[in-house]
Inverse folding.
């Protein structure tokens, strides 16, 4: 074992431990650099499966990997669990809430969060799905809604408890709607005594003319058919104009409508995280309409060759004029490119511009149902679902050998149990104006016929 | 299938879905009664494994089963997710926060919570371990302490971040201390760059002269030896006299001492839940020193043959003068007895007094280490650990076929990964007065030797 002093090594600071930041760190493993990965969370979150946490199929621990565990064997990498508040490009310094870190090259990969199109007051009523806490909030609300419906004597109020509105017909919205339909129709079957959870009204609202707008039209149609078969009401060309506790107001071709719904989930707009504005303030870099950072062909920002932006936070329009979509494969490839660029520079070499290799798009709708667009090959149904499972488990395993998730998945698939259906947090019981005042006077099945 | 009207059936209301309440409900399955199980949580929690959640080995979903899922096929049972605030024994009525439920027989099984011996202000600094939220709070504090230590430049403060004090040498205290030692010495090994987590100072404090006071003395000695080998400092005859943010004050034979520790966990006192006081107010029943309800030989309360108290909430001293311990097997057997008593009464029969059959006691200290007291047979080490695993998995499976936990357990055992190490909730980063202001200037290992 040879120990060498690294104090003079090139220092790469990466802000954000998502797909972009973590891939950049990992691909710098054999480079003569020091890497410091800063994140305000101590884990990498596998966001594509977050909707499974929101619907009680997986636990947060199943889809999260401690960053220190992932980078444990990478001796040139240090993880810093801290919050970045500012940067100082002149002195090449990142400012933390309680300190500062010098860099030679900075990679910013802090991603995006929800955007309510100027209606930030909707956030409280219609939470989005970006963090573990978001997922647990949505899980609590969904489960509490069924509990409240079971105890609600007023039929109209009960209907509102059993109405679930998902705003946004992208992959997250579809996955949530499809899984929620399965939860109501399969998992919760026979678990309640007064309500039939299968009567739940699950609405998926999309402003444009079809769900999954970036996908080929034929797959959008297949996705809609699959969702409808699962019992989801898909309403396209429907815009949300207001959200208040218990009510969603929508506008469509036939005018305005008020939907009484106690559970509303936001899966529509996205805006760049706070670091984009910090970069704009400190370097003058241009931001796009949703606040993302306009990057150069090599992912640096104008006039700042030492600052790179990767992943959802970057607006990369050098490939076909359109910005690349905010999906995990783009972030991974950009993280990898950033690492390669740093390694090339240290050797005095140059790299061609970043080029995204699109391996295809996959969206899952429910058990056995998904759509896949692999360019020439488009398919749906069970084969697409299998492909989806395979790809997702593959990436999970890559980080943390999470083979357990595979077991959990198989278990859920065969038993349909969704065992992580816990109402946790501050409110754990529904509080109604007045609930049924005696035990349900329903007609029970006699002992003799119980064995059916 | 014959449907019969049950509106005239005897109505058993059970408050609390722990071991006592759930066993009572399940053993009334084939009785001609209606059962309503009321709990403010929607799940049964397998409390004996809660310390695994607090140390990142299991997720809450792994040790919790939705009550509705457990009782799904029991057609005479209804689950009510509600909070009981009072009872009205005269009208045989349970009062909810938002309604009321009539009963013919009431079983109260609401258990116990922490008791700080009159120092309720200690609760904020030294949380106990009774709920999922408690476990997540302790998990966050433990993980944040290591993160803070990694960033703390002041050696004395760093030492305080790496000092963990567990108050109480009962099974929970032992399990927490042993697992925490493994976390620090095995799981976190090589994950940090500035600190060595193995240097963590883990203190287990017990007021009496030995740990596990209710066990035979030879097992207490074995438990202490095993803990010491794991790196835990066990201090007996040591009483906590004060707890403040960052400091535990203790008193022992040599006087008073102040321990600087940022992470303190309370595993000492227990007091009865609020329902005991409600029962005392409404029926005049006697409570013991810790607030538990003094019960008759048939688990009813004096003068109220229609009200039974089972589990940790009951003080049952008719067996050998000493109250039965607050452990799961007692609660299970009492729940079973309560169901039998109700069934016997409906047939006009009588039952002999409740009698606890003690199958033995088990406490786990860490990987491969446990102590078992099966009456004549006392053993420790790996065989006791295997017995412990077997018993716990057995009961988990009984409720919810949680075979996955077995996989998770095997996985953790072989990889020692503890993958559920997530810092979640409000604070996710340590905030220090001032952290290291540059990346660590440590001596990294070169690439060539990385493969060791």
């Amino acid at each position: 074992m040879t120990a060498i002093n690294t104090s003079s090594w090139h220092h790469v600071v990466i802000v954000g431990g998502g797909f972009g930041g973590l891939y950049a760190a990992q691909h710098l493993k054999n480079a003569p650099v020091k890497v410091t990965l800063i994140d305000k969370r101590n884990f990498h979150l596998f966001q594509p499966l977050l909707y499974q946490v929101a619907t009680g199929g997986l636990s947060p621990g199943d889809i999260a990997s401690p960053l220190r565990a992932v980078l444990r064997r990478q001796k040139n990498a240090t993880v810093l669990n801290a919050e970045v508040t500012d940067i100082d490009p002149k002195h090449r310094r990142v400012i933390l809430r309680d300190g500062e870190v010098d860099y030679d090259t900075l990679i910013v990969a802090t991603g995006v969060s929800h955007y309510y199109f100027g209606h930030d007051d909707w956030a409280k009523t219609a939470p989005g799905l970006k963090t573990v806490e978001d997922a647990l909030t949505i899980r609590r609300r969904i489960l509490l809604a069924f509990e409240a419906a079971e105890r609600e004597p007023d039929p109209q109020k009960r209907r509102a408890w059993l109405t679930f509105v998902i705003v946004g017909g992208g992959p997250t919205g579809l996955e949530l709607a499809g899984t929620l339909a399965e939860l109501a129709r399969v998992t919760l079957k026979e678990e309640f005594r007064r309500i039939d959870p299968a009567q739940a009204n699950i609405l998926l609202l999309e402003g444009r003319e079809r769900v999954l707008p970036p996908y080929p039209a034929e797959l959008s149609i297949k996705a809609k058919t699959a969702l409808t078969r699962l019992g989801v009401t898909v309403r396209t060309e429907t815009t949300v104009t207001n959200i208040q506790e218990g009510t969603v107001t929508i506008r469509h071709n036939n005018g305005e409508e008020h939907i009484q719904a106690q559970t509303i989930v936001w899966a529509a707009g996205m805006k760049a995280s706070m670091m984009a504005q910090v970069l704009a303030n400190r370097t003058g870099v241009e931001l796009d309409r949703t606040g993302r950072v306009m990057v150069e062909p090599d992912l640096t920002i104008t006039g700042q060759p030492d600052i790179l932006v990767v992943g959802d936070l970057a607006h990369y329009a050098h490939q076909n004029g359109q910005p690349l979509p905010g999906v995990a494969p783009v972030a991974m490839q950009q993280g990898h490119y950033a690492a390669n660029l740093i390694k090339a520079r240290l050797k005095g070499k140059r790299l061609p511009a970043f080029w995204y290799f699109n391996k295809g798009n996959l969206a899952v709708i429910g058990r056995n149902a998904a759509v896949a667009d692999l360019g020439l090959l488009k398919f749906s149904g069970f084969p697409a679902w299998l492909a989806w499972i395979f790809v997702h488990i593959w990436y999970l395993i890559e980080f943390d050998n999470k083979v357990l998730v595979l077991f959990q998945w198989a278990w859920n698939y065969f038993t349909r149990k969704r065992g992580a259906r816990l109402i946790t947090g501050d409110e754990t019981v529904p509080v109604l104006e007045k609930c049924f005042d005696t035990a349900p006077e329903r007609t029970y099945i006699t002992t003799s016929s119980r064995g059916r």
Remarks:
- Residues 106 and 145 of chain B are 45 Å apart (CA to CA).
- Confidence is low (pLDDT under 50) at residues 441-452 of chain B.
- Chain B touches chain A through 98 residues (CB under 8 Å).
